[in-house]
Amino acid sequence: MAINLQKGQREAINAPKFVIGLGWDTNSATTGTGFDLDASIFILGDNKKLLADEYFVFYNNLVSPDNAVEHTGDNLTGAGDGDDEQIKVDLSKIDSRATEICIVVTIHEAASRRQNFGQVRNSFMRIFNADTNTEMLKYELEEDFSIETAVEFGRIYKRNNEWKFEAMGSGMKGGLQEYLNKYN
């Protein structure tokens, strides 16, 4: 049975291999243009910075150099039920320097399309066992991000040789470049 998390709540991840599923619905009629939300992963070291540029996994770099993180591809519309984008994680392969994995969703070309997370609803992130399809953790964003164009859904971090997930739900005005500036 999945554990439903609240913002700020932390929970141990008791599986080395799992999938991060991210989903959302959008109100395309409010802007006249379609939404394209993008999931991205930042693999960080003790200094809270990317291990190297290649450890930024997103639609143009689908696999980390250690093969521990694999993005299954960009969903350009978010149409349909269930996960809109997925990221496979195998912690048994992750670079030994890695201590944190940040999960971020940004709105592609948000400024020019005049879009923000206030126009996005039913956003969630879940972690499930890929072999059994069993959902382990789920976090649903409940806040209304009326001006933010990016949200850090959560982070997976290592403490005392144990990996845990923290539900963040932290919004930011900006896009991928702002997160690259933060973590690079």
CATH superfamily: sav2460 like domains
- Summarize the amount of helix as a percent range: under 10%
Structural Rg? 15 Å
The CATH topology comes to Lipoxygenase-1
Number of helices: 2
The number of E-state strands comes to 12
* Main β-sheet, spatial strand arrangement: 1-10-9-3-7-6
Order of helix and strand elements from N to C terminus: EEEEEEEEHEEEEH
Distance between the termini: 37 Å
Determine and state the CATH class. Answer: Mainly Beta
The overall pLDDT, averaged over residues, is 90
Structural class: mainly beta
Spatial shape: globular
CATH architecture: Sandwich
What's the main sheet like?
6 strands, mixed
Extract low-pLDDT stretches: none
Q: How many domains would you count in the coordinates?
A: 1
Organism: Mucilaginibacter robiniae
Protein name: TerD family protein
Domain TerD: 1-183
InterPro entries: Stress/Tellurium_Resist, TerD
